[in-house]
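**User:**
Everyone, produce one record:

**Assistant:**
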Amino acid sequence: MTEKRLKGLPLLFVTLFAAYLVMGLKEPPPSTSIDVAGFSRLPVLNGGRIKPLDTVARTSLLLLRGKQTLPWRGETLSADEWLLDMLYKSQDADAYPVFNIDDPDVLGVMGFQQTANRYYSFTDLRPHLQEIASQAQQVDQMKPEQRSRYQTAISNLQSRVALYQKLQNTLQVADTEKMLDEVNLFKEMAAPVLMAHMAEGAKPSKKFMEAIQIAQRYNFMREVAEFYPVPEARGLSKLEWTSLGQGILESVTSVDLSPAVTAYAAIGDAYRASDAAAFEKALIEYRSWLEAKVPGDLSTARSESLFNRYEPFYKSMVIYVAVFLLAVFSLLFLPQTLIRSAFYLLALAFGVHTIGLLSRMALQGRPPVTNLYSSAIFVGWAAVLLGIVLERMYRNGIGSMMSSMIGFMTLIIAHHLAGQGDTLEMMRAVLDSNFWLATHVVCITIGYSSTFLAGFLGILYVIRRSFDPSWNGKTAAELERMVYGIVCFSLLFSFVGTILGGIWADQSWGRFWGWDPKENGALMIVLWNAFILHARLGKQAKPKDFVVMAVFGNIVTALSWFGVNMLGIGLHSYGWMDKAFSWLALFIATQFAVIALGLWSPPPLNRKR
């Protein structure tokens, strides 16, 4: 079949994937009569920012289990359904296998044998909680980078157990059956006794001691709350979010219980009774109250919930895979048709990637790069943008192929980094500057993106030169020019970003340069890009050697990007990532393998002249 007859194929690919993107906007049908989706959109304060309960559910289950869904008795529970059970049906939730434990020594502490099953319930762990806490307490005295595999695993398990117990006691004490009756009884009977005692200063009576016992339950909720669901006015204009336990205790000195307290109590009672009508009624009334009280926070929570459900970065990954496959197949047949198809799909994936990036910026109120997760998102985005430019210039499918690969790989990295917690976390104090985040950090990250793109183009050069019988001088020259242009671009941005970082450091820490590991890594990227450009311009490096040197730039950039976190020292080190170490080592090993292949492998025997 000729390519002329398939000229509509690119449009067909775009239409199919556009339909896939549009279908993602449709909310999935509810699996129960309870309005779980409506509950999940309620705003709470957690981690220093307002977020929907949907985000609390997803990040919590991800931290505990490593996934955002939970298979249970032939069904698959969503994170929101799991959270509702955690908050209001603790006995049911305790049976769910949500703890991912695969360390044999940790299993040995609890007397479990290692099997194919890696997931355990809180009921399984309950007899061993004291031993887990004791072991973890000893480990917590050590620095993360000094811990053994077992010590890291037991400390992580204790952190997850603590999170689990906090969640179960945030909206009610875990053994509560009728929350609304309980809080009303406290308001009507216990609160007046406590108020009278405070006013009169009388000796403790039997009723007073009973009231104290009830109040201690809510004080416990106040102390362990994982999130704050109650918006309360403080003064004339100031509004603060507090725990539900705090909201109940404050009713001692107020006329009425907060509507948030009664709403969450009524929602919980209706959920336990499987009363969908009562659940919906309490939810609607509470949303109406929030609309009048905190309309901005309610809107933000709704937007973030939609962002979570749509998963724009996952959808981008799917399309990037299709782009890469089309670009590879274009080397074998239908080159013009498949190259155009790949380019159009790359533009579509880039559009979704951009929407996701802008949505994160709007939700966080920050520039695009604020933490390691967002840097992975932005590195991929910038690499794809450069790939689109290259493809428009050369129209040979190479720009689409390499940029889609980097886009996919960086989004995979971001996906795994999301398992560390909230990806829209509050800024550390030293980074709390939108100006420098938008200048220094963005420039440095663009330097990462472009250096990686140059390196991956170099990898393609080496592989095709070594194994592709169709390799010829024209292809070699095109690839070498691409690498050269991207390295020039990378040198500019990495150099400007490094200078801006020095100015920021001078303003924050009182010195322009301190030989911090991150500063050294940024400098190495600048020096290495300058070195290989000088080698090319001075004709000290042949084209083959030049692209191999660009591949080594991948190693330099990876060490600067991730390696400094693994040193555990310096002002830019924000935590030890033991799981990332093996992947970083594997990546570096593959780059050395490509370098060796490029330096010593002969060209293919059947090369076309």
User: Anything to note?
Assistant: The first strand starts at residue 43 and ends at 46.
